[in-house]
Amino acid sequence: xxxxxxxxxKRFGTLTAVDAIDLNVGDGEVLCLxxxxxxxxxxxxxxxxxxxxxxxxxxxxxGKRVNDLAPRDRNVAMSFQFYALYPSLTVAENLAYPLYAExxxxxxISKRVAQVSKTLQLDGILKRTPGQLAEGEKQRVAVGRSxxxxxxxxxxxxxxxxxxxxxxxxxxxxxxxVLQDLSxxxxxxxxxxxxxxxxxxxxxVMRDGRIEQVDTPHNVFQRPSNLFVAGFIGTPQxxxxxxxxxxxxxxxxxxxxxDGGQALKIQVDPxxxxxxxxxxxxxxxxxxxxxxxxxxxxxxxxxxxxxVEPMGAETLAHxxxxxRDLRVVTDWRVPLAEGDHVHLRFPPGxxxxxxxxxxxxxxxx
Amino acid sequence: xxxxxxxxxRRTFGKVVALDGMSFDVAEGEFFCLxxxxxxxxxxxxxxxxxxxELERGRVHFGxxxxxxxxxxxxxxxxxxxxxxxxxxxxxEANLAxxxxxxxxxxxxxxxxxxxxxxxxxxxxxxxxxxxxxxxxEQQRVAIGRAIVGRPKLLLLDEPLTNLDAKLRDEMRTEFKxxxxxxxxxxxxxxxxxxxxxxxxxxxxxxxxxxxxxxxxPRDLYREPTDTYVAGMIGSPxxxxxxxxxxxxxxxxxxxxxRPVETPGVAGGQSxxxxxxxxxIALAQxxxxxxxxxxxxxxxxxxxxxxDIRARETNMKMVLREEVAAKFNVGDEISVTFDPxxxxxxxxxxxIRRERQAV
Amino acid sequence: xxxxxxEKHTSPATPHTRGxxxxxxxxxxxxxxxxxxxxxxxxxxxxxxxLMWSFGLSFFNYKASSQRVPRFQGLENYQDVLTDxxxxxxxxxxxxxxxxxxxxxxxxxxxxxxxxxKAFPMRxxxxxxxxxxxMLSFVSVGVFFKLFYEPTFGVVxxxxxxxxxxxxxxxxxxxxxxxxxxxxxxxxxxxxxxxxVLAGLVSVPKYLYxxxxxxxxxxxxxxxxxxxxxxxxxxxxxxxFRTIETFKLFDIxxxxxxxxxxxxxxxxxxxxxxxxxxxxxTSQSSALAYIVLFIVIVLTNLYLYAVNRRAxxxx
Amino acid sequence: MKTPNLKxxxxxxxxxxxxxxxxxxxxxxxxxxxxxxxxxxxRFMKEHFDQTYTSPDGHTTTLDMDFIPWPSFYERVAAxxxxxxxxxxxxxxxxxxxxxxxxxxxxxxxxxxxxxDPELTAIMQDLHPALVSAYSxxxxxxxxxxxxxxxxxxxxxxxxxFPQFPDTYVTFYREDIFCHEGEMxxxxxxxxxxxxxxxxxxxxTDWEKWGQIGEFFLREAGDELAGETLSEPxxxxxxxxxxxxxxxxxxxxxxxxxxxxxxxxxxKAPEAQAEGVVNSxxxxxxxxxxxxxxxxxxxxxxxxxxxxxxxxxxxxxxxxGAIIDWVGLGEPVLDPxxxxxxxxxxxxxxxxxxxxxxxxxxxxxxxxxxxVLTTWNSDEVVNEALNVVKxxxxxxxxxxxxxxxxxxxxxxxxxxxxxxxLRPWNRAHVEMIDWQKDVWHIPEFFEMLTQQQEEFDKAITxxxxxxxxxxxxxxxxxxxxxxxxxxx
Amino acid sequence: MAxxxxxxxxxxxGYTAVAxxxxxxxxxxxxxxILTAFxxxxxxxxxxxxxxxxxxxxxxxxxxYRASIxxxxxxxxxxxxxxxxxxxxxxxxxxxxxxxxxxxxxxxSRYPLRGNDTYLFIILTTRMMPPIVxxxxxxxxFRLSGLxxxxxxxxxxxxxFNIPFSVWLVKSFFDELNPEIEDAARMDGATERRxxxxxxxxxxxxxxxxxxxxxxxxxxxxxxxxxxxxxxETRTVPVAMARTLGGEVxxxxxxxxxxxxxFLIPIFFVTFxxxxxxxxxxxxxxxxx
Lengths: 365, 359, 315, 488, 289
Hints:
Chain C is an all-alpha fold. Chain C has helices at residues 20-26, 28-57, 76-83, 85-116, 123-135, 138-149, 155-163, 174-203, 206-214, 219-247, 251-256, 268-278, 282-314.
């Protein structure tokens, strides 16, 4: 079973919420739709569920076009951002709710409820109503209700957005474990890149109704296809430094001039040779990839520590040389003092180049 | 000399004890964070300091005098509220100008100050608008602006980032820190989020059940948590707690190891709770120190990946760089190791930290 | 009560006093009491004091139309009232009218609410048509419904006469007269129930219906498990509020039937009015008024209980 | 209230002193506020007062009439009186309230004034004794008692009021139908007696014929009436049978009296009983007769809502051939804007019970209202108010009033040659007024009336019989009268 | 593109048509009353009932001027004065109640007294009880105090009548305010008076005006107190309306309908504007949504 979206478009009046997107979710695959609020990810999900109608394009579930089917006829399971637990029913009744339509025997229903409640550790709270549950429990019940039956696909809308920081960290893992057992196409909508990175097999990064990149978490993180994805994924945010290409050697070693006059050679993707010297580029490098040297070394950017933020195991340092801010994350043991002059090295192979049209410059692999 | 001295505050709401023996000092110009879970008394503390809350017991000293009886209007503090509490019926400009009204400053003066603050916080373009038309980040900045425009000697911040989304929170943290440096005012910041406390605070006071249970610099609290509560509170992913025994001097038995670990300074024959931070667990190259473990779950966070491992029935979390972690899959067998020097020891019954020499 | 403040609502500590109005207002210990005083004072003078007075009166044999010096007679008035078959008959009549009217209001109001629960073009305007009855005065509703029921001139009678051969004489029998009053009252106040039910219906988060749709729940199950629980407490509120209000039913009865035929539609409010203002049995009517007041207090208590339950559910 | 007012007493003394010292032409500004129902007879009084009145004592007198809508008139006046606001100097009052408000100390006893003032004495003598009995006396004195005394004021009788609008009920009928040749012939054929067409015919109409008329003119839609096909049902007769106020008692009392029954044996108080009088066989028989005609009336009679206005509406809209209603409601019948039968109506005396000698007893219950003075007025105001009374009961004023929809209680006016032609119902009114009696004026009257209306209503709507109803009334009245000490 | 079903909770013009028909059936009695306002007496009582007739404005004229049947002269009905009385009495008393009630509501919301809920309960009870229960003692009190028939008497009474309503409704608005805004104002140095007038009141201005209007509507139609406790000069419109109920003729349906129609117009529009607040208003703020 698969989900296929073909040129799927949704317009509300003059506003185009979703703009002709194509997407495939394979059987058993978990796909995260990731993007800032208002990017059209929830609308896309709702079109798959049938709660919203496509203006143009098609939704195919298991190869069948379902555009004109009501949600109930599409046989999808969905968990809502606000959980949508039925407030007057107990947890057990909530879990059993989707099963009534399948005309199962009472015994079968209670068996399935028991199964799910065991998987999600809901045994202790089966008799309670949603009002008596903690946020995390509600969340698990919502998940339980969507996985109790055997639908064509699973849809999750911002499943963790209502939980506090600590609970979110716990639940990320928990849901991921559950998802690994469901062999159905699954779509998760989230605006939190950490959730997407942890839970997805693939991530589709959306912006303004379009998909910017679809790839594995690893690739989305390590090989962003454009400036938006690079900036959106990763915390602290990737350092994005405007620079001018001075020249390259064809093997990926290129020299860049920075504002303020400093110039250095950095090993980047060999595709840099496609650019002619003088081209304006943006260099992208993750805060954890920059290396701090106390003493000046060749091809390092000298700068000054502006501010230090201890984060426990790591330390985030803000550097400023008068022209640009750079964020660097180091182990907490590295001594850093505000006002110190340091030198930053760009290790080979970790610097991305974005051209003026904001696309990454990368040789085919 | 301490600018703010909070001494043994008590406040109850019906049967609920909000504050009970809350005491701490904040030095002039210091950025002090109160860290504690929700309803541990942070908000009540700030409100008591500001004079918005009456106290049953305890004194508040500020700027060298006892202000316990001084009305809220006369304390010269300002506050940033969790809900921002912007005046919805006034324009941004009027919101920012309000704290200056009582100072008797001239209209021109007020306009100048408002302009400066708006400039500083990059909200100049919103001055004529009503707060409800602003984005969350802009509202937050206006709230900050209103709190600092009167140049208070003490700025109280009550979970100001709770209502913002993750990305904005990261940005605002840095912004607060920068503001503190530029304005040099004393700040008292309440938050339930350890990362906020660690990144911003000069010192952090950890609150539990209405009183401060630990005070220290972020680094100290991370390195030498005073008890299991503090240890569990600080650090992400949270510290791994393990039940351990010492078999002899310097010999520590850990549940996931079939042999004792050499740990100098540990006395024999006692039960301990051992804390081991996920970041302190490393992949083992090879050799005797290697502990065999199985990968249970991976959570890629971008640069780093949290790996849940299981070693002899014991679940632990560790953190690996993404490019390293990407090589592994769930179910893979790996070897890990740690430096015994990174272990933290706690009393199993009280949870209080034990220093090595004392152990 | 739902009105209990959370801890954040409490007064700030501002122990210092100042002169003048500000200082007076600023005294935090008395501020609440002082602010409440004017309201309580007016209520005391115009409501509570008269009530106490009449409570006193209810132990005398005072008549407002007589110059005789009132004589204290203890609980005699209460005894008279409570042992008077007439009074019990009026209570019974009131109960029947209140009961059937409230039930009818619930049904009609509920159906109307279902009609208006959907968003449709011009909804606000169409809704106004249904809300209008509530804005009329009792007098006009009474007079015109009486005219509608009139066997010769009435529109209702005219239409029904076309259908049946017998002339339609609605108010000729006790049952018909009660029906006539109930229909008029229910017509006037069903929109109120509708408003409450509508509030319940729109308070159901849309995502619950979406979830039910996804879960393939039948319409009936959706109603039973989602819609109904949301309006349940509001229905209870509607019942109590309307019961309290219908308990006051006076003008419509007085105009449509004058309590007739016989005394079959004379409500306790009409009877109280007659006792006090036509028979001038001031003391006795005070005693009866106190009994009515007691019932209203009980009902009001139940009402507030329902309000709080609703508030708890909404939170 | 009779609380002595020092200020007022002093004022009175000053005025008295001034009167003694100075010339008798002491004048002042006087405002007389009068509670009055809002309808033409009172409106006329105000208009005419403003145009014609000059104070014989030289005062500048203003008559400030508070026109109160009829339906809330009683409540308003009762509220004003018992609330002690002392707003009114004069009040138009239904006669049955006299007891309650005299006992309450609100209505001024005028016996001495009348006694001392020959002008007033003359007026009282000229007033029809039925009116004096009904409108003026408290405790109530019957016409017979007054006539026996023969003088005004009669010894031991207290006088309170003067007629503002003396009202009687008469028959309103459709000349076009009752004088239609075909209908007349058909009626003659069916009942062997004539269909009343002229005034004289109505003088000879008893309840039996009234019933025949009802039966005769009961027509379905589609039937012929006076040569035209009816699109809606038509009815022959209607009289009051309404639950409100006194809207059935007034008619039922007539039946009872005419049948030799009585409504309460007050004349023998305190020994007399309500039991056995109120529910006497004669009374039951009379009530039964009253009920027997309801079947011919428009269906609203079955609801107990046939009040004096509904009758009038049914008549004016051409739904009924003849009604018995108050003269006071006659004017709109002639108004083309309100009435479809304004040019087809004539008026006759109300039917009565034929006695053995062939004459007809038309004893009826008087309507209309007296006006009274209130007890808190200063002497000066009382004097001036009595001047107003004299002005109002002056024959010239009375004639003008009659021309403008009023009525007169002065025998001299009613006897004047022009009187009968002033309004079409005047002849009937004069004939009827001689038959009038009134209900008893005890303070508890309202309670009795309400309960009685309730029982009558049950009988009218067919829930109980005449006997049951009157038994219930008798039992209630007996108990109540015993309670208040009227019966021992 | 073809749609098999609509999104949940939405409907189109077809639905509007159905709802309009049902709404109109429900509205029909009112429609009939409005029609009657344009009918002559004969048309109003015509059998069969007339839907088509020659409309007349006489009834509306008669509201203010009436022609005497006998003399044919036209007299002012004093309806202008009664209008003024209604407006003056209602505005003054509702205004007073709003001021007094707002102060109390603020206290109940922000400075709860001991027994706060009991006070609130008593206040609500005074409004829930049938007026017939209090009218007797009030009547007696007016009798002794001499307040009967004066403007101040009825204004005072209506003020008391409106206070419970104002307190509960305004309190519900105060309860919804974010109290941190007031705290912020205090921190900014605002006095308590300024907190109240400068920050609380402006935020609930809309609520206050809604309360005022609801109070007017409730007071406007009051009949029993007005009947018994107003005098000639202080009579209000509902009492004056009673003149249509009988006098020389029975009920003057056309005139009553005309008055009802005239009085319906302002309330209709006000209700239309306040539609979203309506429920809160009619339940004294106890039900917010």
